[in-house]
Amino acid sequence: MSTDVVPHSAAPAVRAVTAATDGAMRALGRDLAALARAGDVILLSGPLGAGKTTLTQGLGEGLRVRGSVTSPTFVISRIHPSLVGGPDLVHVDAYRLGGPAEIDDIDLDMTQPDSVTVVEWGEGVAEGLADDRLEIRIERHHDDTRTVHLRAVGARWNDIDLPGAQPGLG
Ligand SMILES: Nc1ncnc2c1ncn2[C@@H]1O[C@H](COP(=O)(O)OP(=O)(O)OP(=O)(O)O)[C@@H](O)[C@H]1O
Ligand SMILES: [Mg+2]
């Protein structure tokens, strides 16, 4: 009898999800909220208007936090407290940040343990926040649909059944 051995140090889990509409994007955010725990870090990347804030709105709905999630244009980060005793949502826009040193300056480590920390434009800037993180890259197509690429890094996400299909497995 053979046993499938999947070492926990295996390559990060990757998934791809199609989001045809902004409603589907928000629904994906709600699905991810159901999996999220305090301490989680989620990095969002993708071009201008890809749907990063829309996905974060779904996360906020699913986590049931206070306040509407909008593009934090003039602030770098905003805390949405939980209305239900769960993790808060910390929504960061790293667009204007120069790099990892500047993200250190906003002291996200103060809120991180009790929050789900979501960083728009986090790629290349915010990896240092956590060894375990969910990296999400949104690809925008000409017909306005999106493909959302999920990449789970670190042991936190072992055995978590992420939404979407495993690329290459149909
Ligand atoms: N399939 C889709 N998924 C997500 N958003 C969509 C989709 N189709 C259209 N949209 C629209 O795209 C617009 C841009 O969304 P959003 O503000 O979430 O992008 P963003 O990546 O946060 O942009 P920015 O780079 O400015 O931060 C919104 O008006 C949203 O309703
Ligand atoms: Mg945005």
From TrEMBL:
InterPro entries: P-loop_NTPase, T6A_TsaE
Metal-binding in keyword set: yes
GO biological process, one term: tRNA threonylcarbamoyladenosine modification
GO function terms (MF aspect): ATP binding; metal ion binding
Subcellular locations according to the entry: Cytoplasm
Record keywords: ATP-binding, Cytoplasm, Magnesium, Metal-binding, Nucleotide-binding, tRNA processing
Cited Pfam families: TsaE
GO cellular component terms, semicolon-separated: cytoplasm
PANTHER family: TRNA THREONYLCARBAMOYLADENOSINE BIOSYNTHESIS PROTEIN TSAE
Family classification: Belongs to the TsaE family.
NCBIfam families linked: T6A_YjeE (TIGR00150)
Role according to the record: Required for the formation of a threonylcarbamoyl group on adenosine at position 37 (t(6)A37) in tRNAs that read codons beginning with adenine. Is involved in the transfer of the threonylcarbamoyl moiety of threonylcarbamoyl-AMP (TC-AMP) to the N6 group of A37, together with TsaD and TsaB. TsaE seems to play an indirect role in the t(6)A biosynthesis pathway, possibly in regulating the core enzymatic function of TsaD.
Protein name as annotated: tRNA threonylcarbamoyladenosine biosynthesis protein TsaE
UniProt organism field: Nocardiopsis aegyptia
